Amino acid sequence: MSFELERKQEYTLITIKGEKLDSSIAPALKSELVLLNADGVKFIVLDLHKVRYCDSSGLSAILVANRLCKNALGYFVITGLQDAVKKLITISQLDAILNIAETRQLGLDRVSEQLKKA
Questions:
Q1: Quick one: CA torsion of 62, 65, 70, 71, rounded to 10 degrees?
Q2: Cα 116 off chain centre by
Q3: In Å, what is the CA distance from 36 to each residue of 45, 67, 91, 92?
Q4: Whole-model pTM above 0.85?
Q5: What is residue 116's three-state secondary structure?
Q6: Nearest 5°: CA angle at 107, between 63 and 65?
Q7: Three-state SS for 12?
Q8: Rounded distance, CA 18 to CA 21, Å?
Q9: Which domains does the chain have, with CATH numbers?
Q10: DSSP-derived secondary structure for 16-78
Q11: Which positions ≥6 away from 32 have C-beta within 8 Å?
Q12: Per-residue pLDDT of the chain (118 residues; tens, 9 = 90+)
């Protein structure tokens, strides 16, 4: 698998293991996100610190995660954006709707804040 899941009681951390989030990984990631959602997972941190390239299918997977968490009244945050991926998200104007944290720890802190509000 090109990504790693770390399920905690309150949230799930997904770490992309490769340098690409593209059509070779996005369908499996989307499927996993749907399964997590069906299992009741509402809070997800997606760690992209290794990802140097993302295409439209990768962006689509990110948007699926965001929508599923939002619809479940949860919270989705992406962390560790490399410059090329950050630029793509900005150009796509997705930075206005996505929760972005610089580091994994900041992302986990944001999830903790949201859990206190829930």
A1: 130
A2: 20
A3: 12, 13, 29, 26
A4: yes
A5: helix
A6: 20
A7: strand
A8: 8
A9: 3-117 (3.30.750.24)
A10: E-SSEESTTTHHHHHHHHHHHHHTT--EEEEE-TT--EE-HHHHHHHHHHHHHHHHTT-EEEE
A11: 3, 5, 14
A12: 799 999 999 999 999 999 999 999 999 999 999 999 999 999 999 999 999 999 999 999 999 999 999 999 999 999 999 999 999 999 999 999 999 999 999 999 999 999 998 7
Distance in angstroms (rounded) separating the CA atoms of residues 26 and 65: 11
Side chain identity at 82, as an amino acid letter? Q
Residue 98, CB-side half-sphere exposure with 13 Å CA sphere: 27
- Joined together, the tokens standing for residue 2 give 């090109």
Buried b (16+ CB within 10 A) or exposed e, 79-93: bbbbeebbebbeebe
User: How long, in residues, is the chain?
Assistant: 118
Say if CB 30 and CB 64 are below 8 A apart: yes
Record the tokens describing residue 88, joined without a space: 């793509």
